[in-house]
Structure formats: C-alpha cells, structure tokens
Amino acid sequence: MVERIHLVRHGHHAMLGHRLCGRMPGLQLDDLGCRQMSRCAEMIAETPAAIQSSPQRRTQQSASILAWHFGLPVDIAPDVDEIDYGAWTSRAFADLENDKRWNRWNTRRGSSRPPGGESMRALQQRVIQHLEQLRRIQTDGAVIIVSHAEPIRAALLYYSRTPLDNFLSIEVAPASVSTLAVDKSGVRISRVNQQVPG
C-alpha cells in the first residue's frame, strides 16, 4: 500500500498575494516559482511511485518539474483541483476587503461559500475521498500530489481533526511539502509546510 503522500503546493506566480486566482485560466509559474520547484524536488528524498497534479496550469508546471527530476509522468487528478471561488475568481484582494460575504467566508469557512462557488466542506470531501482511495492502491512507497493551498489545508484540517473555521491555523507556503504517513490503522500527519530554502 501507499506509505506516504506528499502534498506539494505549486510554486510562486506573479498574481500570488494580489488576486484570488482560484481556477483563473492560463496562470503559470514565474522564474521564482520554477526555481522553488527545483529545490522542492531536492527536498523529497525518495523517488515516488507516482506524481499527480491538479488540472490547473501552475500545478501542472510544478508537477512537471518534479516529474523531470524523478523520471516519471504526471497524472491529472481533478479531485485535488483548486477550490471554485465562483464570482470571486480573479478578483483583487483589495477589492474584496469591504465585501461582507468575503469577511464571513474568512471567519466561517465551515458554513459559508463564495458566491456561485464551492464550499470548503465540499472541497474537503472531494479531496479526502481521493486520498482515501489513493491510500488503498497497491503500490509501495510514496505518491506526490501537487495541488493548491486550500485543498492541502482542507486535508490537513481533516486529518488533524481541526474545524474548518480554524483554517488559518495551518500555513501552506508556495512549493512547500506536507506529508501524510499511511498504514493499516489510517493516516497521520508527519510533516506540515516544509518550505524550500530561501
């Protein structure tokens, strides 16, 4: 069975910290992001059995850098896609600051959702379903999943039994690695947000 699942966030891109990108099309890594992912590959000490990626361009780019390092193909996994932010997709953070729905979303993740988008609970359900299926496949060693901050955070909140409203208690930096250890008794978190060297 799978023994470890490395949850890797994509590398840096030009809109990071400026816009709520979500599923905004065409977004790709910048030079810093590419360098981060090369360092990230060196941080993962074992050759994985498989590399999976969210369908977004920036995650596929990030996964491709890891795949080149390990000599593996990339499998697309829709269940680890970024959360759908609906009407907020591509909006500048500065423009959202005075929106009451945005403030509610950031204090009550367990019971709210973006307008026309996906709830954090629905995101968590699809990500956990994928991870639980993955841990039962017949392969030895590790699997790398390249995803986004919110799906990775949702998984870590679930396995640490932390309420969704406490989502800010877990940081997920660009190109960071968080690792789930898997055995017959279940899944436990062995590493959170290991960041690439500056």
What would you note in describing this structure?
Helix content is 32%, strand content 18%. The protein has 198 residues and is an alpha/beta fold. It has a single domain (4-194), classed as Rossmann fold, CATH 3.40.50.
What's this, in brief?
By secondary structure, the chain is of the alpha/beta class.
Under CATH, the homologous superfamily reads: Phosphoglycerate mutase-like
**CATH fold category name:** Rossmann fold
Taking all residues together, what is the mean pLDDT?
Answer: 95
Report the order of strands and helices: EHEHEHHHEHEE
CATH architecture: 3-Layer(aba) Sandwich
Strand-pairing-aware structural class? alpha/beta
CATH class: Alpha Beta
**Helix amount:** 25-40%
Output the radius of gyration: 16 Å
Largest sheet: 6 strands, mixed
Count of individual beta strands = 6
Widest sheet: strand ordering: 3-2-4-1-5-6
> Could you list the spans in which at least 5 consecutive residues all have pLDDT below 50?
none
Number of separate structural domains: 1
The tally of helices reads 6
State the oligomer. single chain
Into which percentage range does the β-strand content fall? Answer: 15-25%
Morphology = globular
Distance between the termini: 34 Å
Blueprint of the fold:
Layout: E1 4-9, H1 31-43, E2 50-53, H2 57-70, E3 74-76, H3 93-96, H4 100-105, H5 120-134, E4 142-147, H6 149-159, E5 177-183, E6 186-194
Parallel strand pairs: 1-4, 2-3, 2-4
Antiparallel strand pairs: 1-5, 5-6
Helix pairs in contact: 1-2, 5-6
